[in-house]
Each structure stands twice: as C-alpha cells, then as structure tokens.
C-alpha cells in the first residue's frame, strides 16, 4: 500500500526517475530556466530546492552531497559559484513555475520553471516600482488638500466620449404631424 506517499513517480522506474531529475536539475542550474511538463516541473522543484539550500553554505561535505545528486562537475561549480551568491539572502522559494498551457501534440500541460533571482526582466520591473506601504482601513486623520478635493471635482460629459456620443432615441423620432400616413390637418 502507498499510504502517505505523495511523490509523483512520473510513470518511470526509480532509476529512470532519478536520472531524469538529475539531468533536469543540471539543465536548470546551467540555463537558469527550462520548459517541461507541469508534473515534471513540480517534481523538479522538490528535487532541486534542497540542493540550492545546501549551496548557500560552501563546504566540502555540501559539495559532495550536491554532486551525488547532480553527477555533473560543471553544474556543481556553477551552483556553488554564481547561483549561491544570488540566493544567499533568500530564505527559500528559489524556483518559480509558470504555466504555459497545453502542448499541441498530446495536450500535456507545459510549464516554465526558472530560478527566481535570474529573471532579469522581472527584477528590473520590480526595481522600478516603489516600495509598498502598509495601508490601514481605519479612517484616521487625513492630510489637508488630499484626495477629498480631487475626488470632489465634477465629471464632465465631454470627458467620456461613450456617454457624449449616445443621445436619447426620442429626439430623433419624427413628430406625429410629419408622418406620411397622417392627412389630418388642424
């Protein structure tokens, strides 16, 4: 019985699954992002995040443990060099999974798994945003000349072209005297 066993075996033998996850982890460390199926991405996250945590402390023991999982000297060197510097202050959550939709051939759900600190586009977008401030729901004291004056300004009809273009249909209707079938005169 498999009570409480949550690992997805991905339809493979244990040795095949271990080799596949090792290869995918190596690719993720070297390329910083890979595209795969959603199920494999979720299993890879469980496989690689403990290795990333180990890489934060550079010791011979940690290097040997990580190498036993990855079986690749270059990815181990990259992990303890470049990657560990970037994730040094992060308390966890080193990977991000982005769903991409279904694959055309077999309709498998695909996903992009990437190392969080290496997405330059997202990091630059977050750097431009100001830091969020905590907002209270309580009324409190409002500063003079704040939002109350701005929101009290009346909204003109010309400011909203959709409202300005739509006129009531009653004005366009012809008068009863002008109808072609009406011959009654006063």
Note the main attributes of this structure.
3-stranded antiparallel β-sheet, 7 helices, extended, 186 residues, single chain, alpha+beta, 3 strands
Please state how the strands of the largest beta sheet are arranged side by side. 1-3-2
Topology pattern, helix = H, strand = E: HEHHHEEHHH
Q: Write down how many β-strands occur, each being a DSSP E stretch of 2 or more residues.
A: 3
Provide a count of the helices: 7
Characterise this structure.
This protein has 186 residues and is α+β, with helices and mostly antiparallel strands. 43% of the residues lie in helices and 11% in strands. The protein has a 3-stranded antiparallel β-sheet. A hairpin with a 6-residue loop joins β2 (95-102) and β3. The protein is extended, with a radius of gyration of 31 Å. The N and C termini lie far apart (98 Å). The model is unreliable at 162-166 (pLDDT under 50).
